[in-house]
Amino acid sequence: MAKIIFIQDIAYEYFGVMCISSYIKKHGHQCDVLIENIESDWFAKLEAENPDIVGFSTLTGSFKWAIAKAALIKKKLNKPIIFGGVHVFSNPDVTINQPSVDIVCTGEGEDSVLE
User: Fold this and answer.
1) What residues does 30 pair with on adjacent strands?
2) CA–CA separation, 68 vs 80, rounded Å?
3) Computed from CA positions of residues 59, 62, 67, 70, in that sequence, does the dihedral angle turn out positive or negative?
């Protein structure tokens, strides 16, 4: 069983994250979301959860924020990081060329994340 945690900057219902979460849970895996501006210490909670994969669903407005958080996670925890969402769909080459991004997902992510 694998565990994936999505990191968000705001409390917003990202439809893609909800669909992926439901799908991978249906297949016996774990999924959770940490929201930076709600969690008093989101990084400590991420560290304690010890996920197998960390995910970001990004809009263009949050892309720089997500890259900065991914860099921190990569440096301190060295976990595989997957990026998806509207910004990635429009800019996959720019996204995958970021040093902290290991995987990009363009389009529907349920099957890709399950793999």
Assistant:
1) 3
2) 15
3) negative
* Residue 85 Rama label (left phi>0; alpha psi -120 to 50; beta): left
Do residues 32 and 49 touch, judged by C-beta distance below 8 A?
Answer: yes
Phi-psi region of 98 (alpha: psi -120 to 50; beta: other; left: phi over 0): beta
User: Whole-prediction pTM value?
Assistant: 0.91
Residues 3-51 have pLDDT tens digits of 999 999 999 888 889 998 898 899 999 999 999 999 889 999 999 999 9
Contact yes or no for 54/80 (Cβ under 8 A): yes
Cβ within 8 Å of residue 86, ≥6 positions away = 58, 59, 60
Rounded CA separation 86/71 (Å): 20
Output DSSP code: residue 43.
Answer: H
Q: What are phi and psi of 54, to 5 degrees?
A: -115, 130
Read off the pLDDT of residues 86-96 as tens digits, 9 standing for 90 and up.
888 998 899 99
